[in-house]
């Protein structure tokens, strides 16, 4: 099983470090990343593009996990990133990430955020709606700057995935609709503005996509649009940004394509469509988030209370839950978990792995086969690296966990554990009368 590795004592290791030692040294709940796994995933996408001999950029969708440390790693690998807020942009710049390789996304970027992006010279602003075009126009005029932009269009493709994640269909809060002519209208507005350089088109069809069909359909629709604009306006985009959404393996049942297969199928489709319409081959950009960091992340918890329910599966509770991983509660997302001390031990029972938050829905895993376990045991939930820590919250005023990067047998804290002092740091006494 390539999900996890063990050392000679049979303990789970992450980045070459014993998970029991990580738990002991840094406490639980703890988020741990195997940095080599992140690098290997990124390089798998790079190698796939190199093989196809096309211009490309891999723009890590940092909403999946956005901290200074991950921005450093992606920068070291030569990647681009996308950010969707002033907070992500601030973090990336603080980490020394080159502004020129940042794309700024979002369906409701505020005036302040757009100004921040322009003043820091981000590489591309991905325009999402007409309000934003107007707003950016004003900011560019005021600051007397020029910026590269892309148009986010909705191609009317919704990849087969969980409904919360569908963003490519026509009834979407994101992007300009192609069919109704919004995209063309936006194109004309942008082309008329000399302070905006339209470098390409963007679309994103969904998340946790397990097959290439949706992407191929997306490519067809986008290149049809490109061909229309070439005929009508003699315009051809330099970049085709196809978004992210490449699926990962959360459990042994999940079956997804490799980076290699996704990319070769997508690129070949672009080549074919471009050739058929005599279009210049554009550079292909992708925005993988989950597939870069998802399988590299582990959430370590300590087992505490156990509750039997006659006739039903027992609850085994841990010291974390929906505060550090909301995905099971929000999307019915499924995960696997193993005991850090003996991941290969034969299961003896099936339990419900419960979180510690005051909400019945805070169940991390509904059906987990486990060897004999006891309070104090460390359990590792696998493949938690995407949208786990990045969606973490302080519900019940539980401090958010620390994040550790492990690589070659070394572990480093890259986000410290929140303290109770942090929890009240923004609270102010109410000055009551009487
Ligand atoms: N590009 C755009 C424009 C996006 O909207 C997204 C994700 C991505 C790239 C990255 O998609 P990925 O490769 O990570 O699938 N919180 C949800 C996922 C929300 C995804 C939103 N957009 C979850 O936990 O499943």
UniProtKB/TrEMBL annotation:
**Key word Transmembrane helix present in the record?**
no
Under catalytic activity, the entry for this protein gives:
meso-2,6-diaminopimelate + H(+) = L-lysine + CO2
The cofactors named for this UniProt entry are:
pyridoxal 5'-phosphate
CDD domains, alphabetized = PLPDE_III_DapDC
| Gene3D superfamilies named in the record | Alanine racemase (3.20.20.10), Lyase, Ornithine Decarboxylase, Chain A, domain 1 (2.40.37.10)
For the ligand (substrate), the binding residues are: 290, 327, 331, 359, 387
According to the entry, every stretch annotated as the Orn/DAP/Arg decarboxylase 2 N-terminal domain falls at 36-293
Enzyme Commission numbers on file: 4.1.1.20
Q: Name one Pfam family in it.
A: Orn_Arg_deC_N
> Sorted alphabetically, which InterPro entries does this protein's record hold?
Ala_racemase/Decarboxylase_C, DAP_deCOOHase_LysA, De-COase2_N, Orn/DAP/Arg_de-COase, PLP-binding_barrel
Give the NCBIfam families listed for this entry. Answer: lysA
| Name the record gives this protein | Diaminopimelate decarboxylase
The beginning of the lineage is:
Bacteria, Bacillati, Bacillota, Bacilli, Lactobacillales
């Amino acid at each position: 099983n390539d999900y996890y590795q063990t050392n000679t004592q049979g303990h789970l290791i992450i980045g070459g470090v014993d998970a029991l030692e990580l738990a002991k040294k840094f406490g639980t709940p703890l988020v741990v990343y195997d940095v080599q796994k992140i690098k290997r995933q990124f390089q798998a996408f790079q190698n796939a593009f190199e093989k196809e001999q096309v211009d490309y950029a891999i723009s890590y969708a940092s909403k999946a996990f956005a901290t200074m440390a991950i921005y450093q790693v992606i920068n070291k690998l030569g990647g681009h990133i996308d950010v969707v807020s002033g907070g992500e942009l601030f973090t990336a710049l603080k980490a020394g990430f080159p502004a020129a390789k940042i794309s700024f996304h979002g369906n409701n970027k505020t005036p302040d955020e757009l100004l921040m992006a322009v003043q820091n010279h981000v590489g591309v602003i991905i325009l999402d709606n007409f309000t934003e075009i107007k707003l950016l126009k004003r900011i560019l005029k005021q600051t007397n700057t020029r910026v590269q932009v892309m148009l986010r269009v909705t191609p009317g493709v919704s990849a087969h995935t969980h409904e919360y994640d569908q963003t490519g269909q026509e009834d979407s809060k994101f992007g300009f609709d192609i069919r109704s002519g919004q995209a063309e209208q936006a194109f004309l507005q942008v082309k008329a503005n000399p302070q905006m350089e339209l470098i390409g088109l963007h679309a994103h069809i969904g998340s946790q996509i397990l097959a290439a069909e949706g992407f191929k359909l997306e490519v067809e629709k986008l290149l049809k649009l490109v061909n229309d604009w070439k005929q009508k306006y003699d315009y051809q985009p330099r970049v085709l940004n196809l978004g992210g959404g490449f699926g990962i393996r959360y459990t042994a049942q999940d079956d997804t394509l490799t980076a290699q297969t996704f990319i070769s199928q997508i690129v070949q489709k672009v080549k074919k469509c471009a050739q058929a319409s005599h279009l210049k081959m554009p550079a292909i950009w992708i925005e993988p988030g989950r597939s870069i960091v998802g399988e590299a992340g582990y959430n370590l918890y300590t087992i505490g209370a156990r509750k039997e329910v006659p006739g039903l599966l027992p609850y085994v509770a841990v010291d974390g839950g929906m505060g550090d991983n909301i995905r099971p509660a929000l999307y019915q997302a499924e995960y696997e978990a193993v005991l850090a001390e003996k991941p290969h031990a034969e299961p003896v029972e099936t339990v419900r792995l419960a979180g510690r938050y005051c909400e019945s829905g805070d169940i991390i895993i509904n059906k987990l086969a486990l060897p004999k376990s006891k309070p104090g045991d460390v359990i590792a939930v696998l493949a938690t690296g995407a949208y786990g820590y990045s969606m973490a919250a302080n519900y019940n005023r539980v401090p958010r966990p620390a994040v550790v990067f492990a690589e070659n047998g070394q572990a480093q804290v890259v986000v410290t554990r929140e303290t109770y002092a942090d929890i009240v740091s923004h609270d102010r006494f109410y000055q009551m009368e009487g």
